Amino acid sequence: MKELILKTELHSFTSCRGFAEAFAVGADDLVLTIRPLYEKYFMPLSIPFKVLFIEDFGLGEPTDVMADAMIDEAEKTGFRRLIAAGGGSVIDIAKIIAASGGRHTDELYAAPSEIRRSKGLVILPATCGTGSEVTNISILNRTRLGTKMGLVSDELFADAAVLIPELLEELPYEAFAASSADALIHAVESALSPKATSFTKLLSYKAIEIIISNYAVIAAKGRESRIGMLASFLAAANYAGLAFGTAGCAAVHALSYPLGGKYHVPHGESNYAVFTGVMKNYIEIKKDGEMEVMMGFIAALTGSKPSDAWDSLDALLGRLLPKKTLRGYGVREDELEEFADSVIERQQRLMANSFVPLDRSRVLKIYRELY
Ligand SMILES: [Fe+2]
C-alpha cells in the first residue's frame, strides 16, 4: 500500500529574487508564466532567461490546442529547464511541455507509459489551490472530446516545488477564493478516499483546519485580511496536493469536469458548485466511518452540530464566494443526462476514489438537485 508519495523537493522563499539566486536561474531556463507576474517579479531580476506567456496562446482553462501550440514554441527555444510560475493552467501545461519531447497531446494521452521527461521542471504556484506542484497529473480540456481529462504519469512530477507567498499578492479575490476552495475540496476528497492513509490524512485534516479557520477570519474581517494569511493558504494547498497525490480526488472533481469542460467554468468554481451536493448524497448512503470523523472535524471548526457540518460549511463558503446553480452557468436541463454519461464513461479514474460508489442514477440525482 502506498502510504505517501514524495517525489518532488519542497522549497520556500520569501521572494522571487531569493529563489532565482538559490536555483541559479539563467539563459538555459524557460520561464512559463503570465505577464503580470513576469513584470512584477521576474523582469526586475535582469536575468537573460527565455520566457513564454500562456495568455499569448489562449485564455481560460488550458486546452489540448493551447498545449500543442506551446509545445511547438517551447521546443524552438532549446530550453533545458522549465520554470513554471502561475496557477493551475500554467502548471498543467508546463508539466506537459517539459515531458512532451516535442510530441503533441493526443499522442501523449494515447500512451502515458511511454512518456519520458528529459527537461528539468520547477514549479512556483501563484494560486493556493491546485497543489499541482507536487502531483503527477496534468488536466487539459480535450476539446475534441468535450470534457476535461487528466494525463497521469510519474514523469510529470516536478523536480522541485517552490512556495513563494509574494506571488499570490496580486491574485484577485475571486480567484483566491475559488482556488482555496479547490484546495479544501482536495483535502476533503482525499481524506474520504478509500486510498487514504494515516499519512495522507495528517495532511488532509491539517489543510482543512487551516483553510476553514482562515475562512472564518476572512468572513469576519473582510477580503483584504487574506493578504496576511497567504503563506498559510499556500502551505495548506500544498498539504492537500500531497494528500490527493497519493489518495486521489473523487466524485466532486468527476462531476465538475463536464461543467468545466463544456461551460468553461474555472476549476475551483466548478468544484465548488458540486462540492456539498456530492457530500450530502454520500451521507444519504453512509454516515459512519471516515465521514463521521470528517463531519465532527468540520463541525468543530464551524461551530455547528456534526449532523449540520455540510450546511454550516456551505454557509461559511457562501460568505466568501456566492454559489451558483448549474442553470446559473447556462446548463440546459436536457444536458444533465449527458453530463451523467460523461462522468460514468470518462471519469472512472476519479469515481473509483469516492467515499461510497455512486452509480449513474445517483450522479444524475446530484446534478438535478444542483440544477
Ligand atoms: Fe482540483
Please give the structural blueprint.
Layout: E1 9-12, H1 16-22, E2 29-33, H2 35-42, E3 50-53, H3 64-77, E4 81-86, H4 88-100, H5 105-110, E5 120-125, E6 137-142, E7 147-152, E8 160-163, H6 173-192, H7 198-221, H8 230-247, H9 251-263, H10 267-285, H11 290-302, H12 309-320, H13 336-346, H14 348-351, H15 360-370
Parallel strand pairs: 1-8, 2-3, 2-4, 4-5, 5-8
Antiparallel strand pairs: 6-7
Written overview of the protein:
With 371 residues, the chain is of the alpha/beta class. It folds into 2 domains: 9-168, Rossmann fold (3-Layer(aba) Sandwich), CATH 3.40.50.1970; 173-370, Up-down Bundle (Dehydroquinate synthase-like, alpha domain), CATH 1.20.1090. 52% of the residues lie in helices and 11% in strands. It has 15 helices and 8 strands. The strands form 2 sheets. Strands 1-8-5-4-2-3 form a 6-stranded parallel beta sheet, with helices on both faces. Helix 2 (35-42) links the parallel strand 2 and strand 3. Helix 6 runs antiparallel to helix 7 (198-221) and helix 9 packs across helix 13. The longest helix is centred in the middle third of the chain and has 24 residues, at 198-221. It starts with 8 loop residues before the first strand and ends with a helix. The relative contact order is 0.11. Bound molecules: fe (ii) ion.
Helical segment tally?
Answer: 15
| Assigned CATH class of the largest domain | Mainly Alpha
Order of helices and strands: EHEHEHEHHEEEEHHHHHHHHHH
- Mean residue pLDDT: 96
CATH architecture classification name of the largest domain: Up-down Bundle
The main sheet comes to: 6 strands, parallel
Radius of gyration: 20 Å
> Any low-confidence stretches, pLDDT <50, length ≥5?
none
Which ligands accompany this protein? fe (ii) ion
- CATH-derived topology of the largest domain: Dehydroquinate synthase-like, alpha domain
Pairing-aware structural class of the strands and helices?
Answer: alpha/beta
Approximately how much helix is present in the residues?
40-55%
Strand arrangement, major sheet: 1-8-5-4-2-3
Domain count: 2
Q: Tell me the overall shape.
A: globular
Tell me the CATH superfamily of the largest domain: Dehydroquinate synthase-like - alpha domain
Number of strands: 8
- Strand residue content: 5-15%
Distance between the termini: 39 Å
